[in-house]
């Protein structure tokens, strides 16, 4: 008899029948090595099918041999009531998936024929495979193409290894092999017991180390809590003073700016020095080998402590800067420039009128690069990972550079240096996560992207079909808040999140073409939710969660008398939502309860405004002469918002 392979799932048919291979058949090494490689190859071919069945990851890189084989097993077990797949089969696949065992696959084949055993043993020693003494019984093989054949075969020829009785006519050697099978099962049991014992020993050692580590960190945490309370008590006065300062009107803030600036500079320097220390130690930690376990643990504790200090400093710094911050960016322009700017003030100087000054925390002139703008907000992005909700808006009239600031140019030819806040923030988040993971944190991220057009919510992740993605009347999270369910995609890397963002953006872009520059008339809201945890002994966990919301607002221009009716409706709705946004911010400033429900925009951003949230508004203006009227309005709006100070509330970090 000779073996016959059928491609897609790579298992062996013998003379057109699916037959147990531990019977006395004339197999040779080549059949099995071939069979094994066909199995791997088959898995690749079957990627789509396996994906559908077991929800595998889709990137090529994730399709290593281990994953492919595991999913073979997963798929096989789906069909297990039809065929003879057993636990041993899965176990074999698990073991064989280890790259070091691949060459010695033949050792997992069991045969009653001692001559064949000898042949495989010789092969194994040739490959220097450490497990040449182990034998597995390969019970049955199944593949998609011969699924019906196997089912028919199993029905007619049930096996002793399945729940159905053995048909001795076909499997003539099954009875003869029963003693072999029993001894084989015993040896498997022995191996399993040995593995369990080793695992128990490892677990006990792990628990002891973990308890010791836990005690140390608890002591440190107590000490730190004491320090923190001291700091809070002694510096409570300072913070209150800062709050009063920020609560004042714009001119008062200007008068007192030097004190606040000095405090911010001091905190910034302190924070940057601490951050540099932490980063250096994380690098050392990453380069430690397993041999230096003691040193590694010591260093890890150090990094965790410094990281906490770093977080505290960063949060004090952000609080000193204010929980609602307003920056201004002047767009690059070839035409006449009617604005001048210092680092903190925009000046409109018309010869006819006295100069008008608009102070901001920071003004980026027309020559400021994307990198310079991002540098200013990167510390704020870090506080998202510390467990704060974060909301960044780009506000301004159409064409003032909001989209450029938030995302930058997209597409293959887009240069890195032009990347906007969204791609840069995603890179920073996932790079920082790698560092925190070294210290034991694990994170889960979920991204969503939607737009608000004419007070209707469009889920951009759902494709460009307007019916499908309009969620205004669709399912809601719960009846009370009636917030729509928006697609949230789990993302693990910068590449994944940017792929999601870019693909969803296309739906926005196609709508833009079809609907006459609609994108400038809709608010685009990109959201990243984070849940992080550090496992501790005794079942306790440090957790941390936050939401980052990045908003490219619709053009803020006022109603033009010459505009047509549909434009009027759009503009009225945009103005209404922007007006409601200002009202909410104003209420927060006055410590009154904001009304979020008056517009979809504020309703959807409710969780990101107020409470422990940090809000940053980038006011974008065009320096062109013909935009002057709108520019002035925009600057006035920015000035109004910058007066808002949110309550300082303890962060969500538990
Ligand atoms: N700082 C800048 N440097 C270079 N180009 C810029 C800058 N700001 C904006 N631009 C360019 O100006 C044009 C308009 O900018 P953008 O699309 O970002 O405006 P917008 O405010 O988002 O407009 P809309 O409301 O219509 O979406 C774009 O071609 C953009 O690339």
Automatic annotation (TrEMBL):
ATP binds at residues 396-403. It holds the Pfam family Kinesin. Residues 250-323 form a coiled coil. The lineage of its organism: Eukaryota, Metazoa, Spiralia, Lophotrochozoa, Mollusca. Belongs to the TRAFAC class myosin-kinesin ATPase superfamily. Kinesin family. The chain crosses the membrane at residues 188-211. GO terms for biological process: microtubule-based movement. It is found in: Cytoplasm, Cytoskeleton. Residues 323-644 form the Kinesin motor domain. GO terms for molecular function: ATP binding; microtubule binding; microtubule motor activity. GO terms for cellular component: microtubule. PANTHER family: KINESIN-LIKE PROTEIN KLP-3. Residues 161-183 are annotated as: Disordered. This is Kinesin-like protein. InterPro entries: Kinesin-like_fam, Kinesin_motor_CS, Kinesin_motor_dom, Kinesin_motor_dom_sf, P-loop_NTPase. Keywords: ATP-binding, Coiled coil, Cytoplasm, Cytoskeleton, Membrane, Microtubule, Motor protein, Nucleotide-binding, Transmembrane, Transmembrane helix.
